[in-house]
Amino acid sequence: MNEIFYFFENITSQTRVFFLVGGLFLFLTLEFGIPFFKSPYDKLNHAKINITFTLITLIINLFGAIGILKSVDLVKNYNLGILNAVETPLWLYVLIGIALMDFIGAWFIHWIQHNVKWMWKFHIIHHSDPNVDVTSGLRHHPVENVFRLCFTILAILISGANFGLVMIYQTVSVFFAHFSHANIRFPEKIEYFISFIFVTPRFHRIHHHFMQPHTDSNYGNIFSFWDHIFKTKKDFKNSKKIRFGVDTHMDKEEISSLINLLTIPFQPYRSPQK
Description:
Layout: H1 2-9, H2 13-33, H3 43-78, H4 90-115, H5 117-127, H6 142-159, H7 163-181, H8 188-194, H9 201-205, H10 225-229, H11 252-255, H12 258-263
């Protein structure tokens, strides 16, 4: 554990990009080999929009890194956060830290975006994808990325995570963003038991159902138990029948235009079907 922690304390930007791109290609390969849905769609054109959003995210994260480093310095200089209130073994420090950051920096802001109308308008871009696959995991409006960065900083200050722990969390978080959106076939019984603790493709697939109340459920990013605790977990008996997208924005031209996707949050609000 000490060696792993040391590695992440000294991780380079190039290595982080390698994990991001490597994970993307790993699950893209699995999608071709063991797809859950075999729906015919132009995977290349579909990926272009989502990867463009990914590149925008990387640019925003370069500036966001300044805020993250500042928050880590505040934690260090003023001994802030829950993790600094008690002494724990390194493995427990990492586990508690990842759980706290996952709750505040992922689950909580995700829940807020579904419950605050003006923030939902930015999150719609993520849900508007009619063909959820591994590239969908980083399909986020630039403003939504700012929301998430702010809550990641808040998570660091509350948890008291140091730089190494933040890097571990972000690496694990990206892996699960790829994994949970991947269009891959997973052994049903194994996935069922895993989903009590971790977010799996089947668990998250329900969240991308095109209609409420399924859309407003299963908010987890790494750990699924937050949804069990806060009773936001829903199931869907036959995942094969799930239709992806969001009912207010189903027009193919609208959701395949990058310019339109960027301007959706500034367009008049559309009420969902009931």
